[in-house]
Each structure stands twice: as structure tokens, then as C-alpha cells.
Amino acid sequence: xxxxxxxxxxxxxxxxCFDLARSxxxxxxxxxxxxxxxxxxxxxxxxxxGQTVTWEAVxxxxxxxxxxxxxxxxxxxxxxxxxxxxxxxRFRHTHEFCAVDSGTLMIDEFDYTSPLGPLGKLAxxxxxxxxMMNFLLKRNLYIKQLAEKQAG
Length: 152
Hints:
It comes from Paenibacillus elgii. Keywords: Cell cycle, Cell division. By secondary structure, the protein is of the alpha+beta class. The chain has one domain (3-151): Alpha-D-Glucose-1,6-Bisphosphate, Chain A, domain 4 (2-Layer Sandwich). The chain is built from three helices and seven strands. It has helices at residues 14-21, 24-30, 117-151; strands spanning 3-10, 37-41, 52-59, 62-74, 78-85, 90-100, 103-113. Helix 1 (14-21) packs across helix 3 (117-151).
């Protein structure tokens, strides 16, 4: 059960960072390398508490679908999305935002369990955990760039 945690300082207001992180459109643009697109649930705009989105993407050469639901939400401080259906056995993705100095500290925590028991644990150690870490970092850096440009 790897937990990937990152903290990123963004020179932009907390509300801007919060909204960019829950934007379906921003998510799709930030994950263009995997051809990620919304195909069900909320398909554009800002996702809210209780809503779901189904993403279709290509990971490791395989087209996959994953549905996540917003299970916790307190604007503009945090929201949580959890997998309803998809390739993982489960995941819980917490997005937290703290106003600091003249900007925002964005704290991202992705807690997941791979499928297939011992084989999934082996895949985590061999490649999946680092793949997910890079995937999430790229997305968060995209949010930082957009937020700081908007705050500019």
C-alpha cells in the first residue's frame, strides 16, 4: 500500500489553486501524455462533493477507464477523490491547500493498493510507484504554472 505525498508551494491564492486542482479540463490538459479524457460523470468544469468522473487513458500501452468520486470537500481547503471502479484495488487521493505567506502550499497524498496481491506489490516496487509519483508531479507542476500565470 504505497502512499505518495508531495508538497508544492504556489505563488497564487488558495481559491485559484483549489479550483484548478478540481477542474476536469485542467486535469485532462495536464495528463495529455496519457490521452486522458473524461468520458462519464462530470465531463467539464469543476467537480463537486458527491460527483463522479470517469476517465479514459492509455497507461503502459493499455486503454483503461477509471471512475472516481469526490467523497470529502471543504472549499478551498481540501477535497478527496476515491476510486469507485478501475485498475487499482483501491485508492484515496487527498488534495489539501494551506494559505501561507503570499501563496498556497498544495499537499497531495495518493494512497493506493495495487490489484493482484503479491504480484501487485512487486509491480509497485519495480515500476508502478515511481510511475505514479512522476504522473502526479507532472500534473501538480502544471497546476502551479497555471495558477502562478493567473496570479501574475
